[in-house]
């Protein structure tokens, strides 16, 4: 095992089962399996629908959502816990599947270096999943950019629809952290080179097409949603949709393979669907609905994950994905670590290795609110205390005791070092939570209007006093009402580091104001994005990008992913 | 068969053999096959090298290059002829493979609609190959754009190398015909958003990484070439390479799967390697060297294709690809059509359906020069007269008689309608040409310098009187000499429609001047690009893009590709 990147070394040392074996274990018939190499495949949803189901529909189909306390630079290990928990259910003899997001290449080349779990709790083949995988993000990228080019070409070729180049909504995307593309001017060079206008690029995971792919039920729903996408507005302020341009067919054609979920495996041999990957701070942050629904239909226990904390991915899973997909989680795991608790309790990152029970307990204020947030949805939370090597027993015991005093289910998790074996207790607690039988309810009713929905999210989940619409937001709210788009769910783009829109406010801040500076209709996705604070839709690279450490060895194998 | 797009209808109606069967026919061992679905696969070059060869090395390994007369909007059917000729050799009992370029999505969405042959001479699965295929172009796109972002990030983060933002060579790429990205300004928005500078996007097939992928022998040669790429220059006019940025490993990692050739099949069951696809007017225009070399090692007859006419793809195949890969073609097919001959003979496109023997014979001036150009390389040309439905027997016979009088081998080809059966005579003529045993020689010696090489190409191939270096070209020539890059092969970027740099000069113009306006070093690829005329590295979309006709049907199958 290389000390530099043990995750990659562990993954490369593992003997993977053929994807046909994994598919058979999941109950996916051979005719619905489209192999991509020997250890990954797409599941052909059409062929699957046409096949005879191998599993009866009358068993248990439990859905577990994994979320976390507010992340810190110390790391929380949410994907790792998700994978390890699934492997623990497999060890307990339950037919289990895991549904995860696909990693984005931009952040991998920037800081992350990989996003497929860690240690002995990974989805594999780790290198493939972290690089191009089955090409879904590339398909989304070119579908989006083809659409953008068709829009600019329409303007160039006479602009029959009267599109106002100053009011375009569609932006081009790349799966690269490229800050130089945030603000650009395109169409320069004279009349044959397009119409000059201000523009900007987003990262692929922030695109509406990514959100659509993750919310569409099938290819026809995908096409319907793409047709409804608003690419911009006319000089008369009328919406211009993809249907107006008559290219929803071509864009859907570019996505016809991408909509099929990808099947891989965990290191514990649990079938895993890894599909779609909208960011959770700037988009809705859950893997595809098709993947989660497919996993749930095939297995007794499905473990899925939403990005960041209960304020971001989980809230969006429960209010957007679950609403569109009519999903009801049976339990919610909230991942916490002593290190993150200590940072929320005021310890500097450089001081984390020193035992500090008091700081860990002070940090439970953050965890407490995440747990209560989950209860606010009528769901039963289970705290997974994910052990890191330098955590002391005193710290771990203090946090578990704190949870016990308050009647919160909680368990240690040691999945990085021990895989599924390290989450057996956690799995048992989750299984016990299944029996509690909560009454799941969405947090807000979109019919009350966007301002009401925002206020409910801000006060109930973020601990804010109120919402303030600033900048473009008030005018956009009137625009949304004029078009009849003011009764859609809200997807808040907010920093993941704080319950507030200020990333430096750790712990459990209250009494703050949520500043919404823009409201952006995503009619194809079916929600309105509320932009708060400084959330950007295109990350940048750090001074020393992870790319500097990457390469191939003499045999052509990947090095430097982790 | 749909009258709207018969190519797609024919392809969709065909019963394809499993890719494992095709691989076995080609002699590719199972352990070297990486399936992508049921009918396409990548050939793992490392596994192949490690396996025991199933074919002895002492048989015939003939290489046939297919080129064409100067293309016209009437179409010449070069890929169709290439595929049909290979199927004809298969019918004659020869172990045959075909090596072709991958289609680019940008032009498919623009005008082309598909680029995998036509009628009963196609490579299949047609839809997959024309859409994302195995993701090679996407991998090149993100490798290139990650590199570009790393360069701009280096400048942003202190610019330790002293890169001059006004002298960057690397451009971002998309596989979209997007004229609005030709000239842009990036890095706007203040000090946190990058360094403002002029920039522009190219199409993926014009990128140096595409050229490198198509010329690299293996992944290590790939990494060596990427490391040598010149991304720009310092304020002191020193070259800045990828190696200086220390990211050749990361960029190679992103291409580690893309370097493996893709295996598919023709409608006649001939194994086909479809891999890489640099444009022939703005790049070197041949499929990958790895694909051609692999096909040749496995088969008795390999049929490959170079883009456009003898002045573009063929010249570059023979002077660049064959030089780097030490390949020697055994025969060259020059595809001609009565329609193209008539256009070169002065007939307007709208008048092509009327019989005009005289115009067809007048157009042979163009064909004649292509045939003589091939002889100039010491190779034996065979004219393939590709029949179109409205061609009359009188026209066809007149052209064949013209060829016979001059001692040129020639044969009718009816592969669109009849597949391999329609090229049996052509295959026999090509087989006869194998026995002529020409003495292949490159046209020029790069050691004579770039100006001498350019003059040789222009006078011997284009019929020009001389070369004029204009604009930036003289200064660039001095720059190339200063860096020791003036002894590399030359890749001329020139219109495909004329032997000259003026696309309206049809037939066989002579006495003209080749205007070279810029010389661009592509040190990783190993050549210098000479830009002539108005050749652009980013196409635009037409008024009615092919995308308008595309979509998926009720079963999710592609429609509108052709």
UniProtKB/TrEMBL annotation, chains A, B:
<protein>
    <recommendedName>
        <fullName>Formate--tetrahydrofolate ligase</fullName>
        <ecNumber>6.3.4.3</ecNumber>
    </recommendedName>
</protein>
<keyword id="KW-0554">One-carbon metabolism</keyword>
<dbReference type="InterPro" id="IPR027417">
    <property type="entry name" value="P-loop_NTPase"/>
</dbReference>
<comment type="pathway">
    <text>One-carbon metabolism; tetrahydrofolate interconversion.</text>
</comment>
<dbReference type="InterPro" id="IPR020628">
    <property type="entry name" value="Formate_THF_ligase_CS"/>
</dbReference>
<feature type="binding site">
    <location>
        <begin position="72"/>
        <end position="79"/>
    </location>
    <ligand>
        <name>ATP</name>
    </ligand>
</feature>
<dbReference type="InterPro" id="IPR000559">
    <property type="entry name" value="Formate_THF_ligase"/>
</dbReference>
<keyword id="KW-0547">Nucleotide-binding</keyword>
<keyword id="KW-0436">Ligase</keyword>
<keyword id="KW-0067">ATP-binding</keyword>
<dbReference type="GO" id="GO:0004329">
    <property type="term" value="F:formate-tetrahydrofolate ligase activity"/>
</dbReference>
<comment type="similarity">
    <text>Belongs to the formate--tetrahydrofolate ligase family.</text>
</comment>
<dbReference type="Pfam" id="PF01268">
    <property type="entry name" value="FTHFS"/>
</dbReference>
